[in-house]
Design brief:
This protein has nine helices and seven strands; from the N terminus they run H-E-E-H-H-E-H-H-E-H-E-H-E-H-E-H. It is an alpha/beta fold. Helix 1 packs across helix 2 and helix 6 packs across helix 7.
């Protein structure tokens, strides 16, 4: 009960602080999906999660790094009880469980996912970092999944690195058309296509909001 109230509070707070809005090119759906986005802030998954219709939020789980979210009791509570996150171990030498297998288990359990294929926050001047291969391996293991690109515009300025308080500023999450892994599509081709689909949304968001990426 408390975790549900906190989840609703987080969603309301981020919409208040950011003026968050969602633009949908595909229709919201309860089908198994992977929402993948650009990654510039620890608030990214909250932005996407908050932009989803309330009826979908509890079945959509953010994928997060265990090393960050298990550092203290508050983070552990938030990611597990409030956001129902899927924690993965990012260090190959110390991990106990295969991250792709963990994601497959979450999907098989009826969940959709939010993940960031860049793998780390993008602090560069490039619009996107190269995609990690996990997106492809998940698509290959579960070819029925729909992948939905989501471009988050302006969140880097709302939650700038090193600042404690977020700055109110209009943010938009643009949900693009769905895509699936092609029958004969290899890793490089799929990742390039997924990246192009996300970048195309950035151009739309920049013109729609009157500015590009921060």
């Amino acid at each position: 009960m408390i975790s549900n109230l906190l989840a609703a509070g987080f969603s309301s707070a981020i919409r208040l602080l950011t003026g968050a809005r969602a633009l949908w090119r595909c229709s919201p759906s309860s089908e198994h999906r992977v929402y993948y986005g650009n990654h510039v802030s620890h608030g990214d998954f909250v932005m996407i999660w908050s932009a989803l219709p309330p009826s979908l939020r509890r079945q959509v789980r953010p994928v997060a790094g265990a090393d960050y979210w298990q550092r203290d009791a508050l983070r552990r509570y938030l990611i597990r009880e409030v956001f129902n996150g899927v924690l993965i171990e990012r260090e190959p030498l110390s991990r106990k469980y295969d991250p792709i297998e963990v994601l497959c288990e979450a999907v098989d359990d009826g969940s959709s996912l939010i993940l960031f294929p860049e793998g780390t926050r993008n602090q560069s001047e490039e619009p996107l970092l190269p995609f990690k291969s996990g997106l492809y391996h998940l698509a290959r293991r579960r070819p029925e999944l729909e992948f939905v690109p989501v471009w988050i515009d302006n969140l880097a300025r709302v939650m700038p690195k090193g600042k404690i308080l977020p700055l109110p500023l209009l943010c938009t999450a643009t949900f693009g058309d769905t895509l699936r892994l092609g029958a004969d599509e290899d890793k490089d081709a799929f990742l390039a296509r997924a990246q192009r689909a996300l970048l195309a949304l950035s151009e739309h968001a920049g013109s729609d909001n009157g500015g590009g990426r921060a």
